[in-house]
Amino acid sequence: MEHSALRAEFVAAIGADAVLDDPVSLRSYECDGLTGFRVVPEFVLLPTDTAQVAAAVAICARHTVPFVARGAGTCLSGGSLPVAEGVVISLQKLRSVLEIDVENRRAVVQPGVTNLDVSKAVAEYGLYFAPDPSSQQVCTIGGNVAENSGGAHCLKYGFTVHHIHEVQVVLPDGAVTTLGAPSPHQPGYDLLGAFVGSEGTLGIVTRITVKLLATPTAVRTLVADFPSVEQAGDTVTGMIASGIVPAAVEMMDALALEAVEASVQAGYSLDTAAALLVELDGPPAEVATQFAEIEQLCKDNGTTKLVIAPTPEARAAMWKGRKAAFAAVGRISPNYFVQDGVVPRTRLAEALVRISEMADEAGLRVANVFHAGDGNLHPLVLYSEQAGEHDRAEHLSTAIAELCVDLGGSLSGEHGIGTDKACSMPRQYSDVDLATMTLLRKAFDPDEICNPGKLLPTPRLCGDRPGPHRAHPLEAAGIIERI
Amino acid sequence: MPPTTFMPTTVEELRDAVAGSATSHPRLLVTAAGTAATTGGRPDPADAIVDTSALSGVLNWTPADMTVSVRAGTPLADVQAELGEHGQHVAFDAARVRRGATVGGLLASGDGGPLRQLYGTLRDLVIGVTVVLGDGTVAKAGGHVIKNVAGYDLAKLFHGSLGTLGVVAEVVLRLHPLPRTTATVALPADAAAAARLGVELIASGTEPAALEWTSGTGLLVRIEGTPDGVHERVDAVLATNTGALVLAGADEEAAWTAVAAVADPHSEGATVLRAGTLPSDGPGFLAALGAAADAAGVTLTSGSSVGVGVHTVALAGGHHEPVLAAAHAAAGSSVSVLRSDGLAPDTPLWGPPPPAVALMRAVKARFDPADRFGAGRLSSWLAPLHEGVPA
């Protein structure tokens, strides 16, 4: 369709101020957190309410124009990468907390509200929103719903899908509906469960009823150093075996610790092979007993230094280090890839050995930060663009994700498949599995205009023959570029 | 003549039975233990029955990974017994489990029990699934790791599907450690007081595993954890109410048996409804049903998971239809009929469809285009798929 005609329809529906198509504005939406992929969209729309989102989508549907919803643009897998000749629908103007229901422990929020602002809005009532991705200061609830975001505390509390009661959705034909129900008893297919984590391919959320939890009465946090990654891992195994479910268990290796200390000075040791950050929360006596057991497990497994956060400020400092880890790697390497894969917890040691071997073979360094309780690895592949290491580093990063699948795990624990890993999906799922997933996609979006090219591999993106990750054809064609 | 019954023992046999019967036996009814045979509608006559009860057994269980994969026809009680040897369990306790309900059936029926307060239902615990569709497609989604966002979560789509999309063949579940100690405190309360107490107990950080109220037992608070942690919290619960009582041994067992009996009564002729509401709307919902029951000469036995707003109501005596109608009026599409023994055969079992019913129909049409599965279940919502039935 003619640009000017489409523009006129958008302007009539949502107003001229809400329709961006000048090159400078468009450029600022060309990528998300996966900055290597860039596509300039044809329009960026800034609707202010559900009706405007629905009107914009209806126009896209009428003319079969692809659209991509976008919150804060922090997605690490290119889930909100624009589509060429497509529309970006930003939810940044839908950022109100609409309702707080203390008695029923829930809040109704718009999708552009940041994750942390939800917890801040309800803190005075002794409540909080449990999912806490590292980017929680900026990432939006709408994005959390799209990606089924987790965070450090999901070992005990689960993921976004466990913390959403209902969502209002603008479907790919522009219709507005509601998924979910006020209680866990919702007869019929769990469409809400299928929608959460669908990476923006089934519709756009415009209103979310989040579940809130009572702030835990007691929280205790420690950091323990270990002479080897294996000993740190054995400590976690010991916790699981004794039936403890910590709120969080994070592990960092020497390289990751070096990066964090260079960046935020969280007080981590620089002379240790691995460190565990363990947090327990819950009723005081419960926490006290299990915390003592964890201290003992650390000692039994040869911890060389154990620091217990004496104050909430000290705890915050410990977490600041962990949450800053990705960005901190920038202090020790000019460039890096953040990887996200999952292995069964019992194969963690094997995975780390293999990653180390693969890094040596590639002549690159890999820093490891991971959620040790659930086997969710975040290897950070360090490289130098200037030294021409890009391709080798990207290949290593992809190989690590696929190693996770080979070890019985998954390509992604929380960052999503997006654009980044769509072509690796055949490693984890058969053609039949993927075709069956496509049935769900088609039920919601028969014309595939809602965030196309994400999550599921397509011949256009990945070539006719599914297989190991290759250079992106759009890149080869000069449509997208890497920096 | 009784219909043909397929009784596969492997996924391959299941696939062959489904694929091979497309012409000879187009309409299939999936069953296993039969504990939810009456849930969600009266099945239409089928050409063949797919009985998954021989598709059973634990496939893979690595205790240190806290996950288990099982064939769908495995009774959950059997799985729990095996897991218990290593101090683990599936944190799920629907009443039907005692009658041999299978993992696949529990997923497809969207059932739940008192532990839904802390752990949710199977939709919150399932991490992978293998399904067989009407054309013999065998598809997997999810996997064997708890944290996994790769691909669409089809396991959740099949939650509550009541056998209308395909056959659940294998299920992977996340596990939890068995609590070291549990305790039950009973608080005398009517429905309204129980709902209020539930709010207070959750707000005070008691972290109850279950908050279950029935008209017979009052509010039962189950606390799980370490011995001293449980002790501390039991004391806190006792302090909230002078009539509170710690139940132990046979008394504790009897109280929870009474809760299960409301959700899954043994008596013939009963009608059993389940409904979801906002937790704070629960007492009003039960009051509305109570008023309808009084007018219709029905005796109600009610139970609620007061912290999450799920209610199960058993009806005995009198005319049950007006009570169901009152439930539909008060809780709309969140009402399902678990047993319909006391209802006239032509009573509409489903209330107004949920807002997303069009999507539900679209999913049904994509996954089961030949309309082979589960005719009669969810029927008024899926109706436009069936010829001759008005939308």
TrEMBL record, chain A:
GO terms for MF: FAD binding; oxidoreductase activity
Flavoprotein as UniProt keyword: yes
Keyword Ubl conjugation appears in the UniProt entry: no
Domain FAD-binding PCMH-type: 37-215
Keyword set, alphabetical order: FAD, Flavoprotein, Oxidoreductase
Cofactors required: FAD
Alphabetical list of InterPro entries matching this protein: FAD-bd_oxidored_4_C (IPR004113), FAD-bd_PCMH (IPR016166), FAD-bd_PCMH-like_sf (IPR036318), FAD-bd_PCMH_sub1 (IPR016167), FAD-bd_PCMH_sub2 (IPR016169), FAD-linked_Oxase-like_C (IPR016164), FAD-linked_OxidoTrans_Type4 (IPR051914), Oxid_FAD_bind_N (IPR006094)
Name under which the protein is recorded: FAD-binding protein
TrEMBL record, chain B:
FAD-binding PCMH-type domain mapped to chain residues: 1-178
Protein name listed in UniProt: FAD-linked oxidase
UniProtKB keywords: FAD, Flavoprotein
InterPro entries: FAD-bd_PCMH (IPR016166), FAD-bd_PCMH-like_sf (IPR036318), FAD-bd_PCMH_sub2 (IPR016169), FAD-linked_Oxase-like_C (IPR016164), Oxid_FAD_bind_N (IPR006094)
Single GO MF descriptor: catalytic activity
PROSITE patterns for this protein: FAD_PCMH
Keyword Flavoprotein on entry: yes
Database matches in PANTHER family: D-LACTATE DEHYDROGENASE, GLYCOLATE OXIDASE SUBUNIT GLCE
Keyword Flavoprotein: yes
